[in-house]
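[audit] Reproducing an earlier prediction to check determinism. Same input, same settings, fresh worker. If the C-alpha cells differ from the archived copy the diff job will pick it up downstream; this log only records the rerun itself.
[audit] input (418 residues):
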Amino acid sequence: MKVLILSTWDREGGAARAAYSTHKSLQQAGIDSRMLVANKSSEDSKVIGLQPLKYSDAILRETRLFFNSIELKLYKNKSADIFSVPKFADKVLPEIRKINPDIINLHWICKGFLTPEILAKFNKPIVWTLQDMWSFTGGCHYASDCLRYLDSCGSCPQLASHQEQDISRKLWRRKQQSWQNLNLTVVAVSHWLADCARRSSLFKERRIEVIPNVIDASTFKPRAKNVAREILNLPLNHKIILFGAIRATQDKRKGFEYLVPAVQKIAQTELGKNTEVVVFGAAKPQNAPDLGMKTTYLGTIKDDIMLSLVYAAADVMLVPSTEDACPQTPIESLACGTPVVCFDASGLKDIVEHRQNGYRAQCFSSDDLAAGITWVLQDEERWHLLSQRAQEKVEQEFTGEILAQAYLNLYQEILSSR
C-alpha cells in the first residue's frame, strides 16, 4: 500500500508536526508513506517539498498568495482570526501522478497549497484528517460561537459581514459543488471536532471517524527534572508553570488573557512565592503584563529534544485554549510526565482527564484555572500520581503504533470497498 500525505508544512506548527508524526508512524508500521508539502524543513527523503527552485517560481507563488488574500482586504473590520479563501493552488497534480499513491491523506492544506476544486482531480480515494474546522466552514478555521456552518455560511461574523452572499457563502458553495462526488472519508482528531463535522452542512452525510494526533513517544518522554532545568538555566527549587503555543501571547484562541489573572491570583498566595512562569512559542511582548512572579520567555523552539526538556522541566502545563481540535502541546506534556490544566472545552476533553492526569477548569474562569494549578502543585504525592497517569494516558491512546494501526485498518477498508 502506498499512502501520500498532503500538508502545507511538514514540521512548522502543531498540525504539521502531527501530520509528520503520522507519516513516520505509518513507515514504522511497514507502510510505504510519502509526504507532499508546500514548504519542507525536514531532511526526510520521503518528504517532497514544492519550494520554488527558481526566482520566477518564487514570484509566482507570492503572486498566488496575494490573490488568495486580496478579497479578504475588502472586509475592513475583519477579526484577527485566521480565515482562508483559496483561489489558486500549488502545482501538486504532476507530483501526485508521479507518485501514484493508492490513497491520499489530506491534513492541513491551506495557505495556497490546495483549492476545493483540485481534490476532484486526484482520482484517488481521499482521507481527510481534520486539524481544525476549515474544511466544513466558509473560510474560518474555528467558528467560535457562530453556527452558520450548519447551514451555508454567509453574513460571517469573523468578517464583520452582514451580507448573505459574502465570500464565506461563495467558498461554502465552491466546496459543496466540488466535493459532491468525491470518494472522501473524514477523520477528526477529537470527538468534539467530529461532532462539529457531523452537524455541518458539508460533511453531515460523510463517514466520520475519530483518530487523535500522533506524538513521537521516543522523543517526548519523562526526563530528569533537575537535568532539564540545568540545561535550560531554570531554578531547581521553584515550581514552574509552563505555557506555550505558536504565537502564544498573540493568538486569542490560546487563552493568554485567561492565564494572566489566573497566575496573578496565585502570585498573591504562599504558593506564588516559590513559583515561576515559563512561556515558549513567543518572545517577551513589548508591553508584557506583570504576572506577579518571574516570567521567562523562551521564544520559538524548533528542536523537539529541546522542547521535551522544557516540558520535563515544568511542574504543570497550562493550556487555557477556548477552542482546540487536538493540540499537540498537552499530549507532549503528558508524555513527558507533566500534568496539564486546561478548560473543560473542545478537543482538550479527550486529552486531560479531570483530577486524573490534570485538571479541567470551568469555562472560561480564570479563578478556576488558578484553583486547578494550585490543586496540581500543592501536594507532592498527588503530583506523582498525576504524572504517572499522564504517561499511561499517552501510552494507551496516542502512540504511533496504536494510531498507525487505526489508519491502516481504515485505508484497507476503503481500498477493499472500491
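[audit] rerun output stored. Observation attached for the diff report: The mean pLDDT is 94.
[audit] end
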